[in-house]
Design goal:
The protein has about 200 residues and is mainly alpha-helical. About 65% of the residues lie in helices and about 0% in strands. Helix 1 packs antiparallel against helix 4 and helix 3 runs parallel beside helix 6. The chain is built from 6 helices and 2 strands; from the N terminus they run H-E-H-H-H-H-H-E. The protein has helices at about 10-30, 40-65, 85-100, 105-135, 135-145, 165-195; strands at about 30, 200.
Amino acid sequence: MPTARTISSSTPRLRVTAAVLAATIGLVAISERSLIAGVAGGLVQLAGVAIVVVASLGRIWTSAFIAGRKDTSLVRSGPYSAVRHPLYSLSLLAMSGIGLVTRSVSITVALCLFSAIVYARAARREDSVLSGLHGDAHAGFAAGTPAFWPDAAAYRVPESIELRPRVFWKAFLDAGSLLGVALLLCAVDLAQRSGITPTLLTLP
């Protein structure tokens, strides 16, 4: 008898985020964003892509410590020694970089606000689950480790970790999708500025 598919608690968040990014691409395709233009606009876009690359590499590195162990262990090594929710912090960083790629102040602010709300809620939910699973151990972890802003002095890396390739591979796909969105936005922005797509509104 077939079993029902289990939907991860992160699935709704990922779907909403994908919808927001798709809407962002569409908005860039039909809008003029002249506040950040010329050489300055190009530099802002380049900075945005660089930020997305850094965030993507950070997510891959972080996933090496958590892949396959998220629901069974309280991970406190690597990035988790400095911050409780490094994946959410890096996702917020990536979204800010994607915002910069659009060359729009309003889109960047909107993406950052959206991300802050979504990831703060996800972090609270995750802390609640981990508290129920690990009790006093998680309480001590939460008391001594910041939620989003890393404490660089506390960063520790063990001599070795167990890596689960099948699970870890997903981190590369996630990172590739973030970079893909950034590059697609660059292409759509270029198409809009070249007159290939129509200008239906103007954004700051």
